[in-house]
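Predict fold of TOG domain-containing protein; 329 aa.
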Amino acid sequence: MSGKALRDHNASPLLDRKAGSSNKGSIGKSLSGNNIENVDMQNSKNLNQDATAIKTSSEAAKLTDAVPEIVCPEIEYVESENLNDLPDVDAHLATLLDRLDSKDWLMVCEALTHARQLSIFHKEAMLPILANEIILIVKSVKNPRSALCKTAIMASSDLFKAYQDQMIDYLDPLLLQLFLRSSQDKRFVAEAAEKALIMMTTCISPNLLVHKLQPYVKHKNPRIRAKASVCICRSVQRLGLEGIKDYGLDTLLQIAASQLSDQLPEAREAARILALELRSVYDKYVFGHQLQEEVAQPPSNNDAWEQFCKTKLSTINALAVIRVTTATT
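Predicted 3D structure, encoded as tokens:
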């Protein structure tokens, strides 16, 4: 082998190593370039995603702005004397029960107002559907939505005024709800219920109403007992002397005595007023007749009243009645 060949042979590995080194460098450069491209692509992708998110958020905001704000409607509570007649009575009557039973509470409120107008201006025309109407009114009185509840209570008040004694057969379910609403609900609902109860005791014959109210003074709910006691007291005051005598002085005295020791002050105060009313009737009528019949020395008013209470009541109840009715005489 010549010297030149030997030099070329010895130099070839070095050249190969340099070539390899050169190749490695180019590969590194290639990889480095790819990484930069990947980073750029990722950044571009992130920017696109951010832009899309901003666009979506902007569109959502526009969509939200486009949706109209839900406004709670304001219900107007019109007093009975300010209600006007309906233009098409037959059409309103034909659909009244369906509208009172609607799932749309605003429609029910409107129907209740129409029922009020019909009871004022066309009570005879509405009489055939009165029973079913009261059932639906009670349903609305029980509704937790205060606006609907109050409108239904106002309707019941107008029915009491329009139909008076004709309401007595449909009274029980309505009575219970009015007692509850007048004692434990929001103030503006409670006031409407109290007005309805006053209208009831004003418009329905007291002898019929007292009989209907009697079971409620024994109700397990003290609030119901209290409201029933107040209504009985109002009704008895309307009975007058002859009415109390006809109904039974001793029966009414037992009602008063049972409530004098009741849990709530409202019930006790109503019972006290009732007992005083009965004492007044006793003095005017019963004791007066006894005086006419007595030849010997007649007993005093208090003695005669105490004796009457003791013969009609238990000892405890008699003492309670005597205590509240003799302190002012």
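The CA atoms of residues 309 and 318 lie 5 Å apart.
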